[in-house]
Write a structure and sequence with these properties.
Blueprint lengths: L2 E12 L2 E12 L3 E5 L6 H9 L6 E6 L2 E2 L5 H6 L2 E4 L11 H8 L6 H14 L1 H5 L10 H13 L5 E5 L7 H16 L3 E6 L2 H7 L2 E6 L2 E7 H5 L2 H8 L4
Parallel strand pairs: 3-8, 3-9, 6-7, 7-8
Antiparallel strand pairs: 1-2, 1-4, 4-5, 9-10
Helix pairs in contact: 3-6
Length: 239
């Protein structure tokens, strides 16, 4: 199996608080890998260390065998790891299409940029319908689509999704998760952090369950979905 991204013995401290305690995560090329767990489990800290936002105390983060731990964020992005952040962080003063072009700012070829834009509009037709609107006028679900679309504009090797379902209605969550599957099926490797464990396990290939900075359980998602004790102990009710 070809691993595109590997996290090895990762330790992250916030002052005297050890947020991540020596975890190992493998992300095969072309897969959706999920990090699950309650608030404070360390999920977002892990994904932010991959994108360079959070510094690593020890361990390694390897992209195709190259250790990128503690590399500058812009250098990590240039290597093909792109994050769609928690809270979306869209640029409200710009139009929908201008937000998307910000995501592809490093691409110099106009034809590639157009192809990427067409690809995003293929995933999210509503963004094409709203392309001249101010981003601030979009609904919460549309803003999440915009955040994911913006991340896709640079042709990421690894797409990092941080809580893409946060604050969204169940029908919108289902729609976005279906699109995430489609993005994977077309060749993009995805690492997703989510509190909505049940819906995430339906689309992911393999999952790691974190609690207080440690991996408490891991496995194929089909198997984890059948494990009632998993939800009782770590993930809450199925919804």
């Amino acid at each position: 199996m070809e691993y595109l991204l590997q996290i090895k013995d990762l330790v992250i401290d916030y002052g005297i608080v050890k947020a991540v305690k020596g975890i190992n995560i493998d992300v095969p090329k072309g897969s959706i890998i999920a990090l699950l767990g309650a608030n404070g489990a360390g999920k977002s800290t892990v994904i932010r260390s991959v994108s360079g936002i959070v510094k690593v105390k020890s361990g390694s983060i390897e992209l195709a065998g190259e250790n990128i731990a503690n590399t500058d964020m812009y250098k990590i992005a240039s290597k093909g790891i792109i994050q769609s952040p928690e809270g979306r962080l869209i640029l409200n003063g710009l139009t929908v299409e201008e937000n998307l072009f910000v995501g592809g700012y490093k691409i110099k070829s106009k034809s590639i940029l157009k192809d990427n834009l067409d690809r995003v509009y293929g995933y999210f037709p509503v963004l094409k319908d709203r392309k001249k609107q101010q981003a601030s006028t979009l609904s919460g679900g549309e803003q999440q689509m915009l955040a994911i679309g913006r991340a896709l504009m640079s042709n990421p090797k690894v797409l990092l999704l941080d809580e893409p379902s946060l604050g969204l209605a169940p029908l919108i969550v289902k729609e976005i998760f279906n699109i995430i599957q489609e993005i994977r099926n077309e060749g993009t490797t995805i690492l997703i952090v989510e509190q909505n464990a049940y819906q995430t396990l339906k689309i992911a290939d393999y999952a790691y369950v974190l609690e207080l900075g440690k991996i408490k359980m891991e496995g194929n998602c089909e198997d984890l979905l059948k494990d009632e004790s998993l939800f009782t102990a770590y993930l809450g009710e199925k919804k």
